[in-house]
Design a protein that fits this description.
Helices cover about 50% and strands about 15% of the residues. The longest helix is centred in the middle third of the chain and has 21 residues.
């Protein structure tokens, strides 16, 4: 039975995929045995592998990024007349020659990138799920909880921070609605209170009403109502003893930077 060793100095997914794609071109593909050999790191492992491949009349295909190990593999295979296919080496050399760039030659980088990507997606899904006070039982799972009155950029901040792989939940503070009890069980350093100048909030809410086709004299933009909401929110924040940030004249990116800076300091305490 033909054997292909799919070898890598990382987990070996790529070399195994190439081996599977190769045997799919043969009618006897079910009779070809593919053996994945991951995390090949030492010359001694190369010597032993080539010797075993010789004994089994096997083919070696590999995605080893270490130039030293690739060279050892080529030399040993030549000595023992073993068929070896270097999948990634020629591409690395071609890109280096064309671009003048030098490869990192570090195994597993693509999986590190994948990990970062999935962490970001998970954080974005979290922000959507726990936006605007939905599912308060999820507050304890958040890295950061934002609280504040309507139009203090809670949702934009949650999404911005999610792209930084931070899981954020946010809770609106409204005088007529008692904040969820879960909010008071969270460590204060994980909660950020967002406040804003009442006149600035009035301007924002009037513009919001206009975009919705509503009259700008609605209670939502009334100064007395705004002051009532801000006072209620401030009292909740003082009760929790959380960090408070005034977002009046700050862009989302600037406020997010302050939140991240505070979060890092809190973790290092």
């Amino acid at each position: 039975m033909p054997i292909i060793y799919a070898v890598s100095d990382s987990i070996g997914e790529t070399s195994e995929a190439v081996a599977k794609a190769t045997i799919s071109q043969f009618e006897v593909q079910e009779k070809v045995d593919i053996i994945r050999i991951p995390y090949l790191k030492e010359p001694e492992q190369v010597y032993a592998l080539v010797k075993e491949a010789k004994e089994n009349n096997a083919v070696i295909c590999h995605t080893i990024v270490s130039p030293e190990l690739r060279e050892i593999m080529a030399v040993e295979a030549g000595k023992h007349d073993v068929e070896v296919v270097d999948i990634i080496g020629p591409v690395l050399r071609a890109v280096q020659k064309t671009s003048g760039l030098v490869p990192k030659n570090e195994p597993g980088l693509i999986h590190a990138l994948d990990h970062e990507y999935f962490k970001r997606v998970e954080a974005i899904e979290f922000a959507v799920k726990y936006d605007d006070g939905k599912n308060p039982w999820g507050l304890s799972k958040a890295d950061i909880v934002l609280i504040g009155v309507s139009r203090t950029s809670k949702t934009p901040l949650s999404m911005y921070l999610a792209h930084k792989q931070i899981k954020v939940a946010n809770v609106p503070l409204v005088p007529e609605i008692t904040p969820p009890e879960e909010l008071f069980k969270i460590p204060p350093h994980k909660i950020i209170g967002l406040l804003i100048d009442p006149f600035k909030l009035n301007e924002i809410r009037i513009e919001r009403l206009k975009t919705m086709g509503l009259a700008d004299n609605a209670t939502y933009a009334d100064m007395n109502r705004i002051n009532e909401e801000l006072e209620f929110a401030h009292n909740i924040m003082r009760k929790i003893h959380c960090k408070i940030i005034n977002v009046s004249n700050r862009a989302v990116e600037e406020t997010a930077g302050l939140i991240l800076e505070y979060a890092i300091k809190s973790l290092n305490k």
